[in-house]
Amino acid sequence: MVLTKEYRVCMPLTVEEYKIGQLYMIARHSLEQSAEGEGVEVVENRPCEDPVHGKGQYTEKHIHLSSRLPYWIQAICPRVFYVIEKSWNYYPYTLTEYTCSFIPKLNVLIKTKYEDNNGSTENCLELTEEELNARAVEYLDIAFDEVRAKHYKKEEDPKLFKSEKTNRGPLIEGWQKTDKPIMCSYKVVHASFEVWGLQTKVEDFIQREIWEILLLGHRQAFAWVDEWHGMTLEDVRAYERQKQAETNEKIHNTSGASDGDIY
């Protein structure tokens, strides 16, 4: 079975600005979510090229899980357990695939495109008629949808945050219709899992986790805007390399543990 969902997430940024903001957010978020023996290990990060999308960046990561999984998955998973993330970033288009070291029948494919609008494009990722009929569209509001309590930080709340550099925020009800600039992240998620007895639970878990990760990441990209606004691509790539090294060191800096995990 393949579940197809399209998430649309608006931010008070331009697509050009988010090219920097996305790289900064992912690098910092990965470090903050990692602990000893747990987190996101970057195993490859190199330029790539596609005949349609042009030049881009290929990244492979091992997302070490185990302790943050639901108990019913922990019960069947070995201690050495990770999800493989392969990403081809041809900004403003990206393709990301997730497979599992322990469950080979699990596959998640995410196609993303960014546009300077408020989520009004009906078929941004050019889905087929069959895919359009199968998809469910969900809009995420970075200001008024709530992250889990353990992820909430007052300084990262878009309802409260005011950017000193850009003078944007705080966000109020209906901000997607009134605020300028505005951009939207369109993400189509194909999730398939073919293991009898766990299929529904795992698919529900995947969608809940993707929803939370998207909401948290996009909130942070805006709330951290004063940290990355004004950076060049060279600046943020240097920052990315530094944080990746710190993250990998943190994951492996534990005796007796296998790799690690991320939520």
UniProtKB/TrEMBL annotation:
Region named Disordered: 244-263
Cellular component terms (Gene Ontology): cytoplasm; nucleus
Pfam family, one: IP_trans
Keywords, sorted A to Z: Lipid transport, Lipid-binding, Transport
Residue span(s) of domain Phosphatidylinositol transfer protein N-terminal: 3-244
Keyword Transport: yes
Entry keyword Membrane: no
Gene Ontology MF terms in the entry: phosphatidylinositol binding; phosphatidylinositol transfer activity
Protein family according to the UniProt entry: Belongs to the PtdIns transfer protein family. PI transfer class IIB subfamily.
PANTHER family in the cross-refs: CYTOPLASMIC PHOSPHATIDYLINOSITOL TRANSFER PROTEIN 1, PHOSPHATIDYLINOSITOL TRANSFER PROTEIN
Record-given protein name: Cytoplasmic phosphatidylinositol transfer protein 1
Species annotation: Drosophila erecta
